[in-house]
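ok trying this again, last paste got cut off
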Amino acid sequence: MNSYRRLIFLFFIIFFFIKVQAQPNNTAVPDTMQPKREFRGVWVATVENIDWPSTPHLTTDEQKKELTGLLDAHQKMGINAIMLQIRPAADAFYAKSREPWSKWLTGKQGKAPDPLYDPLEFAITEAHKRGMELHAWFNPYRATNDGKFSALSPAHITNIKPEWFFVYGGIKLFDPGIPEVRDYIVKVFLDVVDNYDIDGVHMDDYFYPYKIEGQHINDAETFKTYGDGFDNISDWRRNNVDLLVKMLSDSIHKHKPRVKFGISPFGVWANKTQNDEGSDTHGLPSYYELYADSRKWIKEGWVDYINPQIYFPIGDRQVPFDKLLDWWSDNTYNRHLYIGMAAYRINERRLTKFKNPSSMPDEIKYLRDNRRVEGSVYFSSKSLMNNPLGFTDSLRNNYYRYPSLPPQMLWLDSIPPNAPRNVTAIQGMHGVDLKWETPLLAKDNEPVYGYVIYRFDGNEKVNLNDPKYILHIQYNSSSLFTDETVKKGKTYLYVVTALDRLKNESEPSPTIAAILKN
């Protein structure tokens, strides 16, 4: 047998051997293994230029450079989802909007970027390039963030429909009890759902306003007009928020069934001292003070994920992270639970427990020990970029060292793609050139959205459940990839799987060996 035939024979022996060894995707994952599926999000706040842009006076090129730098940094940390604030105060960080450009983008409300570009479109493209989801973060009810009403654009909704608003804490807020207000807000959200390739719609914790001593919500006339059937104004207010959440859920999923809908409420729904079904905590109860019945939204299946802001340390005297997380995990109702994490509080002077470098890593360990928790979202981008007490280093080098896919949402889509076909791996000028053919259409006729490439050393057992073998995740339909990290003289094994929009993963391709020459 000549050397060429021996090489071919060796290739097929390896191919057959590793194909037999390949484990199916549903094999149980050992507890010591990092999760292959985990939501790892970060909030990128634009209000008051908290995270991006750093100042409203950057040029278009400077804004783009700053944003791509931010995305690059988060990609290196292992983040796989960006929650980008695109409507901080009835304004817009996107071009296809019925509301004026945000002053935090250009320095003056209503002033477009120059040269003109669409920040949301740009952010979506760049996030997807880096294997990250982009969730459009809306503030539904906040219309201004200060009392400088004369600086508002003539096209701002407070100037067009002044009767829709009340002033509280010196700012203007939509009155949630007016049906036309709810209709308008839904239309604003759908402008984005219909016109942009977002992965999710996200809302934060601002519903009815947080209480301010000595002030009251001026909605008595609205209650008189629209409060039929309610004995007290508190139940009516909660119902107003419920109506909007239900309308948004129905509308979003009708317009684009693959778009996720999630809300990040204040962490405490209700305390046990106030409600037998509440948590063993002593914090601000959002059910009673913000009129936000967040437990109902997930119980009714109106949201795909709930992301409570548990901005407290383990063992806190008033609101212990561990007890509140346990309560939420008992109230997920088969939807996803992501934990809002307080990166901004690390090393906070008045909160001594967060001055301990192990405090937030311990929270990651705690949530990972609970199988009902599907991930985390950190507030905010700037805090992670600052690497407080080395926490970001611990994400990059330990907890998020290996890539992860977002968790599946089987109630939205349970049909995976078919496997890639005719995969080849050939040594090229810059590494191993991988090629494959697009899979046949899945049973639901959904086209392939992306691919996952796994790589193993020639003597390793093929295990697709261990994320340390994920070489590359891509959110595009390209069927080419070059592995530039190989070493000459080694043998590598490759497996390619396909992803659909909701990150359902196909069965693996046959395992292909690449035997590199020196």
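PB: full thing came through this time. The chain has two domains: 3-31+412-515, 39-399.
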